[in-house]
Amino acid sequence: MNTENNMTNLVLQGLGDCKAQLQQLAALAGVSGTASSRWLSDTALRCEGVALDEAQRRNLAAAALAARVDITYDADQRKMSDFKLVAMDMDSTLITIECIDEIADMQGLKAEVSEITEAAMRGELDFSASLKRRVALLKGLEATALERVYEERLQLSLGAETMLKAVQQAGLKTLLVSGGFTFFTARLKQRLGLDYTHANELEIVDGRLTGNVIGGIVDAEEKKRTVERVCAELGISPSQAIVMGDGANDLKMMSISGMSVAFRAKPVVREQASVALNFVGLDGILPLLA
């Protein structure tokens, strides 16, 4: 985020009936003075020509957090037409769950697996090693458990369908790149009309999980390579990609993008992303591109 003490723009976004809160935050940002504001929607307010020093930014951030409002500093006023690709992580980004944790729940091991998942997403464990360790715990589980997780537990994140329809209508391509599993990415590709997917494949023999992954692991480096590969195929630069994620294994692919979006993300990801959406849905990127 922009942290210089000069003129910038910011977008304030909330949920529900939040107009009064957004106006109060705009006033705190000094919009009643030389800056101006305009409504992008009932839940999004753009403030232009704002000048805040570091202390004022901290005060504004604290007030926004208390009001459950997201702030994005946007000096560049990017447009949808600046981008050609939206790349997304799956677990806890496009969808609300960590699929491997829910699969483990069918094995009575959710707490143990979730603990490893959380540590990996915070960047405290090597992702590839942690995934192999978690998948090994699933050995012997009937493969029908995957279908149960998809049907009974998988839900799209807030604003996901609205965001996807808008970017697809604008002609952007979509990529779902996941350290999760092809069982789920394949179904989401068909369901949502996604253009590209890439994920890990669970080995299944005689209707049961073997505890192994087939082929290489889709880790942070492979996610980055996948974004680069798809951009090359489309004949575009990674700077024309919007990349969304929540965990440490998303940072490498986010770092090469033109807009990196931390969605309900771990602190290490929020700190490095150009946009952090903590409260609004995935469609929170749309007012930033208006």
Automatic annotation (TrEMBL):
Q: Which UniProt keywords apply?
A: Amino-acid biosynthesis, Hydrolase, Magnesium, Metal-binding, Serine biosynthesis
InterPro entries found in the cross-reference section: HAD-like_SerB, HAD-like_sf, HAD_sf, PSP
Q: Which GO terms fall under biological process for this protein?
A: L-serine biosynthetic process
User: Which reactions is this enzyme annotated as catalysing?
Assistant: O-phospho-L-serine + H2O = L-serine + phosphate; O-phospho-D-serine + H2O = D-serine + phosphate
As recorded in UniProt, its EC number(s) are 3.1.3.3
One GO CC term on file: cytoplasm
One Pfam family named in its UniProt record? Hydrolase
Q: Name one GO molecular function term.
A: L-phosphoserine phosphatase activity
The main enzyme category here is hydrolase
The pathway noted for it is:
Amino-acid biosynthesis; L-serine biosynthesis; L-serine from 3-phospho-D-glycerate: step 3/3
The similarity comment for this entry is: Belongs to the HAD-like hydrolase superfamily. SerB family.
NCBIfam families linked: HAD-SF-IB, serB
> By what name is this protein known?
Phosphoserine phosphatase
Which organism was this protein described from? Duganella fentianensis
